[in-house]
## 1
Amino acid sequence: MTEHRADLGKDPDRVSGMFDEVAAGYDRTNTVLSLGNDRLWRIATTRAVAPKPGQRILDLAAGTGASSVALARSGADIVAGDFSAGMIAEGRRRHGHVPNVTFAEADATDLPFADGEFDAVTISFGLRNVNDPKKALAEMLRVTAPGGKLVVCEFSHPQNAVFASLYRFYNDRILPSVAKVVSSNADAYDYLNESIKDWPDQVTLSSWIRDAGWSAVAHRDLTFGIVALHRALKPLG
C-alpha cells in the first residue's frame, strides 16, 4: 500500500488519505508522542465545552471518537464529525455502541448541517489541517445556535523562550524517531510536525475567530503554550 504524505498545501484528499492510514493506531500514537498530555488536553476541552443533558454538540475532527465519548458522558447528544472515512469507520467500530454519539463524515469548510443546529461546536487538533481554516470558523458559526459556544483546542506556540527551545528540540529530534517506532506511517507525523510550526500563534488565531463573527473570544495556554484552548460565543443578535 502506498503511504499518503500530506504537505502544507493541505489538499483535502491527501490529508484525509493520510488519516485513513493511521486511524487504527492514532490514539495510542498520540498518547506516546504527547507524553500522555493528550488526555489532560481532552479533559480541559471537555470542561470548556461544559456539555449538558439535552444539548446537541458537534465535535469536529473527532477522529476515532475519544473526545466525543468524553463529551457524551454528560448526557448531551454528540455528532462526531471527521472528513477521514477511515477515522469514522474506526470510531464506529470502537464506540458505535454509545447511544448518544453519532458519527458523520463532515468537511469543516462545507458542513452538512442546518443553520443553528448545535448548542456548541468544538474542534481539537484539527483546525490546522483544514485547507481554509477561516472558512471553517465561519461554517462553525453558521451551524451554531445564537448564544452557542465554540471551543478550539489546537497546538500553539510556547511564549517562554527556554521552554520553546526545548519544545523545538523535542519536535525536531526526538518525535520523528519515536514516530518511526510507534506509528504505521511516520511520514504522517513529519507533516503534523510541519503543520504545528506553520500554524499561527494564540493571538492570531483569536483574531481569526473574531473576524469570523464570534464574540467574547478568549484563550488560555495549556502545557506552557504547547497547546492553546480558545473559547467564543455566537452573538445573540
## 2
Amino acid sequence: MEKVNRINTMNSSFRNIIPISITLSGAIILGLIIGVLCSVSSLHMNLLQFTILLFMILISLYLSIYRQNQLLPFIVLVWALSPEVRRIIDWLFSTYSEVSIISILPHCVSLTLLIPIIKNIRSINKRVKVIAIIMGVTLAYGFIIGFPRYGMSSLFELLNYAVPFLTFIYISVCNLNIDVRYRWLRSLSFIGVFVSVYGIYQYLILPEWDQFWMLNAGMKSIGAPEPQNFRLFSTINSPGPTGVFLGITLAIMTVNSRWRAFGLIGTMLVGFALLLTLVRSGWIAYIVIILAYLFRSQLKNKMMLITVLAVIGLAYQFLLPLLPGASSITSRVSTLSSLEDDHSFNERISFASNVLSSIKENPIGRGLGSTGISSKISNNSNAVTSFDNGFLNIFYTFGLPLGLALIVTLFYLAVYFFKLSRIEKEFSSLSFAIIVAILFLLTGSNIIPGIAGVLLWLIIGLTFISTTKLTGKLS
C-alpha cells in the first residue's frame, strides 16, 4: 500500500512538472525572440530586462503552485507596472525602444495561468467552454491570415487578446470561495490607488524617466513634457489605457465598500487621477458602470451608492477648483455636452466612414497585427496603429463572420448577467455593468486586448464561479 501511495505521489508530481516546464520554456523562448528583435548592441540592457523577466516568471510560478489566491492580483500588478519599469530601464541606458523584452513581461507572467488551467481543465463550466471555443477559433483565424503579412506583430497581438482571456478560464476552473473573490477586487482597488498616487506625483513633478519617454515616444496628444502640462499616464502605457483602468477601478471602489482600498480617501485619489488623464472614455466607463450597477443591485446598495455619489459630486464641485489642473479638467468635461463641436469626435466619424469602406472591400479581415501598438514591430506601412472604433476594429481584424460571432458573444453575456442578477445581486450585477460599459466603449476604441481586457475577463469570471449552483435555473 505504501508503495502504491509513493507511485501515485510521483505521478502527481510528474503531472505538475509538465505544465510548469512547458510554461517556463514558452516564456523564455518568447523573451529570446523579442530580445533578438530588439537592439542587439544593447547587450547589458537586454540582459537586465531578461533577468527581470525570468525573476517575475519564477515568482508567478511559485504563486501558481503554492499561493493561488495571490496569483491574479500579482498578474494585474505586473500589467499595471511593467510599462513604467520599461521607461526606467530606457532612461538608465539612455536608449528609447519601441518594443523591448519588458513589453512581453505581463504576457509571460500571465502564461503561468496555464498550469492550474491544464490541471483542472475537466471542471470547466459549459458556458465558459463555448465562449472559449468561439474566442479560440476567432483568434486562430486572425493569426493564420495575419502572420504571413505582419509576422511578429501578429504574434504579439495574439498574446494581447489571448492572455487576458486566460484569467476568465482560470477563475472558472479554480473553485475558490467568496472571500478570495472579495480580496481580489480589494486588491484591484489597492493597485488602482497606487497607480493613482504615482500618477498624481508624476503630474506634479514629472520624473526624469517619464520625461525621457515623453520626449522620445512622439505622442504629441499627451501634452508638453513639463510638470502639470500633460495628460496623466502614470505607470501604464498612455493616458487612454490609464483612464479606462482607473475608470473601471473607481467604479468597483464606488459600488461596494468591501472592495474599497483606504475608504473614501482612496476613492477620491483614484477619481482625481482619472480626471487628470483627461480621457473621456474613462469617465464614461465609470458613469456607465455606476448606472448599470445601480439598475440591477439591491435597494440597500442603491441607497448607499447614491450617498457615495453625492459625496463625490460635492467634492468635485467644491474641491476641484482648488486642485492643480482644474482648468484643463473643466474644459475637457465641457466637451461631453458639445461633441459635435469637438475636433477629435469629428475625426472619429470621418475615420469610421473610411474604415467601413475598407471592410466592405475586404470582408474576410486583415488578421492580427494589422492594427494597434503591435503593428509597430513589423513597421508595415499598411497597418493602422491608432484605431478609433472598437467594433470596426474587430471586423477589420477578424472579418465579418467571426467578428460578428465575437460581438454577439459579448451581447449574450450582457443578457445572461442581466437575467442572473435577479438571483445573485452582487457579482452578476457588477459583471453586467462591466459588459455594458465595454460594449459602450467599443464605439470609441478596442479595449478587449491589454490591461482593460484583463479586468474585463477577471470580473466576468467572478460571476461564473460564484453562481455555479444557480446557472441551471437560467438554462
